[in-house]
Structure formats: structure tokens, C-alpha cells
Amino acid sequence: MCGIIGYVGTRDAVAIIVDGLKKLEYRGYDSAGIAVHGAGGFEVVKQKGRLSALEARLADNPLAGHSGIGHTRWATHGEPSDINSHPHIGSRNRVAVVHNGIIENYKQLKERLESKGIPFVSQTDSEVVAQLCEYYYSGDIMDTVIKVVNRLEGSYALGIMCLDEPDALIAVKKDNPLIIGVSGHGNFIASDVPAVLRHTNAVYYSDDKEIAVVKKDGVQFFNFDREPVAKPLETVAWNADSAEKSGYAHFMLKEIMEQPKVLRDTINSALSGDNRAVIDRLDAARFNRVAITACGSAYNAGVVSKYVFERLCGMTVEVEFASEFRYRETIIDDKTLVILVSQSGETADTIAAMRAAKSKGAATLAIVNVVGSAIAKGADECLFTAAGPEIAVATTKAFSAQLALLYILAVRFARLRGRLSEEEAREKLSEIAALPDQVAGILGNTFGIQKYAASCVGYKSIFFIGRNIDYAIALEGSLKLKEISYIHSEAYAGGELKHGTISLIEDNTLVVAIAGCGRLHGKIMNNIEQVISRGAKVLMVGGPAAREDEKLSALALPDCPELFTPSLSVVVLQLLAYYVAANKGLDIDKPRNLAKSVTVE
Ligand code: F6R
What we know:
With 601 residues, the protein is α/β, with parallel strands linked by helices. 36% of the residues lie in helices and 23% in strands.
């Protein structure tokens, strides 16, 4: 979490850094700060609160310079406050640092420096980097940085400025994302590509244990032994507009609306584009087991796909939170395919799960949105979701793209394992290829969802139920609702209600029942009647409602084969969550306490 950016070039660094921070705010938004090389040394402005608060401070205390670094924070060590905001400045004002990650041995380092009389002003782990740099600095900043990084334990992407070198920024990466952008007017460091897209599509993806020396007219890379490293300059396919709201009230709504295109691009890429080659290379016959591991919504995509894999391929599929997978004595071997699902490709637990899987000899396949991310680079094979930059903290379009790739993968495995004939496989793929238009149909008329959402704002708790694959997508509907609307919510398998949960149902409890699974329609209808007869109100998503009245409302879904209906019901659930939160006037793109990229454990 946290976003870092730096610029050195011919233009006003302050405007560029503030604009870049806006694109990185999804990574953390409890405080922000900026430092530039001013005429008389470092000039720093830091402010607790949203970036808008920093902008207001900057309006009163304007900074000017052609090189600088900025930071948007998601607090780990030390509460959100002005003093704990980055950049941190060394005690002799010669080094300024922004940091994303966690310095695990900061206490020992801090105690050592304090015993030498070096004063600390913040409660952060990050300040130790600035103070260590000051401590070791004797005129050669590269030498200093190498000494410092060799003493740090933990994860870090660092942006460092040295007072004596106003024309250079130093950037270091270990276990946290970092890119270097190259443009005609200057060069950048950033946590993520959207921060630089307005200026350039040309980027270097920094690798772990690399140091970049970024000047206005060039970039050099070194390893921690100060040996030069050659790297390719890559072109990012995303365009600057994709990181803008384009007239929508929120990024989340824009991203929901982009889903038909995202699905189309992702499906095309899997059927005949870059992803196709990867899918073709997978030796399905080698695997007797699939283990899917991920966090949050990406985990939910895995749960949906478990039903698809098992039904189509007859294979054992396990899905586990990456935070559990990494610490469990999972029984996996070289006959296991471990699928890692991640939008950012930087989620700390998913990276650790990938490493655990590899250490046990399993084959790893990543499904990732961000090219150049740690998981994209670390996995044996990688399929890319064509979602473009996803800025809203709550994922929508990346989730839909993950589902599409998982479906196609399941069809491919089923074909290779002889469970589907060529013709049946083709038919399944054409059903998947029809999803973008069906999603567009839902998005073309959201009136019913908006109307229903307006009536939901008063609920303290909302339950989601479903059977079979509908239960899997209920998990996602519930997560979406709770994270952006702050309404408590749980998802249950419909059949489980009577084993305990039904005691929570009382007059006017709201239950959202997903009913896309035709085979079990009668069963979910039973569950619906059970909760209605105990006072609940029910919103049914999909399936024909036996009746509609004061207690039972329904939102229909387009006709779709049962296995792929989650791709449709999730869109209704995303919109429901979005409009409930919008009706509550909440900060939808940046829900409290969350950050998009969870790069700490
Ligand atoms: C929820 C959400 C999160 C992410 C999770 C994993 O809307 O976005 O639950 O799905 O933090 O992130 P990635 O996919 O980047 O690994």
C-alpha cells in the first residue's frame, strides 16, 4: 500500500507530482506529502487527510522545483498525522525519502541510531531509511544507498533525493512495485503506471534488489553490488484516458460500465490473442489437481471457478485464501497446478503463496492485470486480464475478466482431459463469448437496480444467499456491498441457513437471493420462502420469481447457461452495492481503512 512518485525534468515538479499522486491515491489515502529541491534546499509540505487537504496546504504554501518526490500513505506504523506523513527528511536535511512497504528491523536500527544521538521525529518505520541515509552519507549517494539497503529487512520501494544532487532521484525496489517512466521532458519513478500515463507510455519495470538512478535525460540501473544492469524499455498499452473518470461520478461506476469491453478484450485475447499461446502451452494432462489461491474478490473468482472446473473437467479443485495457503502444510507437488489470481499482481500474501507453491515443485499460473508486477513476473506462466487500469478500490472489471479467463481455462482443460468433445468445447466458448453483450444489456438499463438500491440505505445488515455457483457469487456480492456501503453483510449457502443463521432473520431483514442456478431453482425458492415466513424481505437476482409482492422483489438476468451466470449476476450485485453507497453519499472509490494494493501482510 502507499503510493510513491518522483519527477526530475524541465517542468514544474509540484504539479506533476500532485497529479501523479491523484492516480496513486487508491493505494492509500490517510495522508500525503511532497518534497522538492527548492532554491534553498528541500521544501516539504505534508498533510494528514486526503490529497485534497495537501492541495489546500500547497495553495497556501506553494513549492517550486524541477525535481521532487511525493507520497500518499496507508498507515502501518504510526497513526495518520502530518508528522508521520512522507517524505521523511534526515536529521541534517540532506536526504529526503518516500517509502512504500515495511521495514521489519526498524526498531533495532532506530535504537542504534538514537544511541548515536540521531533524533527521530515520527513513529514510522520509514523514517529509519532517511536517518540511516543521513548517517552513512559522506558525499556519494549511491554508496550510501547501497550501505543502507544492505541493512534493511522487509519490503520497500523507495524514492530518495539527496541535497547535493538536485538533478537525480534514486529509486530502489525490493518486494514492492516500482516503475520508471521515461518522457521527452523528464523522467519519473512511481508505484504504478497510471501515475505517469499522462506523460509517457515508456516504462522500465524495476526488479527486486535494483537501484535506479533517474536523471532528466537518462536512467541507469544497478544491482546492490553497484554493477550496472541492462533493462528493456517497455511500452504500456494503456492510454491516459483509462486512468481518468471520463465524466462518471466515480471510478467504480466507470469501471462497472467498462465491463463489456474488458470482457470482450479478455476473451479475445484468450481465444486468439496473447493469452491463447499461454493457454495452449499448459500441459493439462500433467496435473491431477488444481489449487487456486488469492485474496478478497480474486479469491471469490476462484470459488466461482471451482464449480466450473469441477463440473467441466471432473478435477479436484481447492480454493484457499493466500494468507492461509502460505502458512499451511498444503499437500501439493509437481502434479498440482497452482493458480494465483490477482488484479494488482502485488498482493503480499498471494506473492508469498506463489513462492510456497514453487518451493514445493508445483507449476504456477498467474491471472494478473498489471504487466510487470511481481506475480506476473514470478509465476511460471501468466494470463493477463485486459481490464486496463483499475482505480476504484473495490474491484469490478478485473473480477469479471478473471472469471472469463478461468472459464476459458476450464473449457480448455475439459477438452484436453476428454471431458468435452471439440464441438461441446466450441459451444461453451461461444456461450462465454456471448457474455459481453449480455453484460452490456444489464448495464443498458440499471433503473430497476437503482430504484431498489435507494430503498436499502437504512438496513444495518443484509444477507446474501445462493446455492451452488450462486453461493460463490453471493460471496462477491456481499463483499462488494459491505466494503463500500459499510452495511454489515454475510453470504451463506442457502442450504446452510437452517443450521444456525436463520435465527438472525427477523421482521424486515433484507436477504438478497441469487437464483441463476436453474437446476436448484426449487431449492433456492424454498430458502426464500423460509426467510420470508420469518419476516425477511427478499430481493431475488435472476430466475423467474413465483410472485412479486411487498416481501419479494426480483431483478431478472438475461438467459445464460448456469455455469456462466455469475458473470451476469455479479454485475447486478456490483451496481446494487454502488447505488446503495451512492445513496448514502459515501466516498465510494476510497472506502475507509482500505487500500487497493495490499502489499503488506
Ligand atoms: C475487493 C477487492 C479486494 C481485492 C484483494 C486482492 O473489492 O478489490 O478484495 O480483490 O485485495 O487484490 P489483488 O487482486 O490485487 O491481489
